[in-house]
Amino acid sequence: xxxxxxxxxxxxxxxxxxxxxxxxxxxxxxxxxxxxxxxxxxxxxxxxxxxxxxxxxxxxxxxxxxxxxxxxxxxxxxxxxxxxxxxxxxxxxxxxxxxxxxxxxxxxxxxxxxxxxxxxxxxxxxxxxxxxxxxxxxxxxxxxxxxxxxxxxxxxxxxxxxxxxxxxxxxxxxxxxxxxxxxxxxxxxxxxxxxxxxxxxxxxxxxxxxxxxxxxxxxxxxxxxxxxxxxxxxxxxxxxxxxxxxxxxxxxxxxxxxxxxxxxxxxxxxxxxxxxxxxxxxxxxxxxxxxxxxxxxxxxxxxxxxxxxxxxxxxxxxxxxxxxxxxxxxxxxxxxxxxxxxxxxxx
Length: 347
What we know:
By secondary structure, the chain is mostly beta strands.
């Protein structure tokens, strides 16, 4: 790596390492020190020995190596991802997490398929390090580590910690932190209540787009390059709202607060029973929407919902499920009484 083909000018800026050994093995410590001295940043998989404490593998357990754990689809530490601390130095490990569950990967035989492991997570970080060095070639190892940790998305109450380090990698945030940027932020409400989980799309020139959601308090924030942007706010049951021509200036905050209006609502109610007339505790879902309710002991249900045409799915343990179309009219009540047939018992 120091001089590929005998040419030191061909040395890499960052080396990804999807391999590891015993956590207390110091065999490669001098090699890593020399690579760092030569300005080559090393990224290592944390290992797949989790969730046991101190299961971090070497050389990821060495000082200054960027050890990467795996996050799952829920943005949490994957169960298999190795944990710290380093048995060599007691240093907090890993440094951060990156996606490592069901990652599309190259397979033998010119094929592709999903794989799990910190070997899938580390290359994400190596790629972002390459982006950082392309943005600012003069960055040192310590400065790269600082950018990665400062921009990581926290996924634990306190950090750093020996499960998720400083949090989950944020490629966009990491690179943007080295460039001129400003902040777009605000609060969303629905009447007197915060509008949580509202989908937000921010678009600019040349096809630029970034998306996110408001938090439980209706707050949102984006870091953006200076420019002019359009914002779309949308959530099920609420009227879409567009704000055009929002100007973002370097080093400044642009605040866009919005009040979102509820779409016209209708009432849907009814009773779920068996063929013998007995009330059933059933689950009711309006398909392709977030609405899920359960009937009471008397088999009855009632809730308000945005007017429109939907498909209702009803199921109860021991009975055949049913689906049926339903039209919910604004300011009217739609009553649906359903009978479910008993299913066969399987021993």
